Task: structure prediction
Amino acid sequence: MNLKGIHHVSAITANAQKNYDFYTSVMGMRLVKKTVNQDSPSMYHLFYADAQGSPGTDFTFFEIPGAGHTYPGNQSISTTSLRVKDDAALHFWKDRFTEHHVDHDPIVELIGKATLSFRDPEGQRLMLISDEYNQGVEPGIPWSQRTIPAEFGIIGLGPVFLTVADITSTKKVLTEILSFKEISEVDHFKLFETGKGGSGAQVALIEDSEAKRERPGRGSVHHVAFRVADETELEFWKNRIEDSGMPNSGIVDRYYFKSLYFREPNHILFELATDGPGFTADEEFDELGKNLALPPFLEKDRTHIEAQLKPLQSSKE
Result:
């Protein structure tokens, strides 16, 4: 049994409104779920994805007002990549980033693919990665957006980049417990993949034993989640992780999917999450992201929760 690929990446923002403006207006992603952190309902949890809200395309943010700067280092998810259709799309985005004053680097080849690294307004470390020669996990469907032609839109999450102090221990978890396969070593990264493979199912691992441990804040990544088909498979992975002696959360019902959390030896938080039931569990497809959605166990507290949240204003584009 193999994991299917990357399910979502969850990061931290200090300002939900500015985060929403950037990822919907500048990046052209769809807000598919406006909800709250189920463990701390006073803060927003925003989910951006493709047009369908497909597993493997979700880039999510917890709002922590007042979150300090991130001090980059090891023991971290150091870059999140987003897939685009081809190399031509990278040139579109480079021009768009210049137009919108987005901090970015030149287009370069990394781990065998054309890439464009950039930072969001809070310093979130991001990378667009071309699907020009990619095979494996299918891409998502770009959200139809007035200023971004569909052929250039974001089509999912690409490889997640981890920086660790001890590559051996994380490699062991990936290969011996989670059944990833090491496929190459390029540009000082060891590249692993699972399931159908390709950009939507890859982890790039680099060792930096001399760096200090990252101090997270706004612009850092909280965790990465990997896809499992359903709760039966999630139970399989729960038993496998427990048999390895690694502490874990047990199965947690997040309503839109079910999850299991654990930290690998370099302290990076991994989540396994089911593909379903998905974001239409409580909203019609055309209404996704328009209203505050709460799981049933929080619905009774809606009035109190809404009073603590500042309403998001509509995107400018």
Observations:
- Residues 5-308 form a domain with the 2,3-Dihydroxybiphenyl 1,2-Dioxygenase; domain 1 fold (CATH 3.10.180.10).
